[in-house]
Amino acid sequence: MTTSDIRDLLGRHAFFAGLDEAALEFIAGCGANVRFAAGDYVFRQGEPADEFYVIRAGRVAVEIASPDRGPLVIDTVGEGETLGVSWLFPPYRCQFDARAVELTRAVSLDAVCLRAKCEEDPRLGFALMQRVAGVMRQRMQSARIRLLDLYSHARVG
């Protein structure tokens, strides 16, 4: 897959909506096409957050390890979404496990490359920060709803 192919994929993805062609080309230089078979880990908690993923097809479960219950799915990410916001925040470590639930195809953006481009072009960096903040807000809302559902039947006192 060429840089222009990746640029075109990014241009059709909601996360990058509103960015001009030059910005998309700039970002695409950090990209590579990747795929994960069902059951493959995209990343594991504690690993370096070296990649930011733009999901093209498939589904990925975002999990947290529970010592007594095994992995707990806290969210599922699919086509049209992004995965792995830890690339942007020191110490650049993954906070969760991410496991492909089915065959998943994505564009992987190299985090070191992407951070360097954000420093080189602060306007682009701010635009990406706003988008990542929006993803984090959405994920927090999703977690809130899951917690309400989980604990709505629990008695207090």
Please characterize this protein's 3D structure:
By secondary structure, the chain is an alpha+beta fold. Helices cover 36% and strands 29% of the residues. It is built from four helices and eight strands. A four-stranded antiparallel β-sheet has the order 1-8-3-6. It has a four-stranded antiparallel β-sheet with strand order 2-7-4-5, covered by helices on one side. The longest helix is centred in the C-terminal third of the chain and has 30 residues. The termini are far apart.
Keywords:
157 residues, alpha+beta, four-stranded antiparallel β-sheet, 8 strands, 36% helix
The secondary structure category is alpha+beta
Instruction: Count helical runs.
Output: 4
Q: In this structure, how is the largest beta sheet organized? A: 4 strands, antiparallel
Strands of the widest sheet, in order across it, are 1-8-3-6
How helix-rich are the residues, as a percent range?
25-40%
Low-confidence stretches: none
Following the backbone from N to C, one meets helices and strands in this order, namely HHEEEEEEEEHH
Give the overall silhouette. globular
Mean pLDDT across the residues is 91
Q: What's the N-to-C terminus distance?
A: 59 Å
What is the alpha-carbon Rg in Å? 17 Å
Strand tally:
8
Query: In what range is the share of β-strand residues?
Result: 25-35%
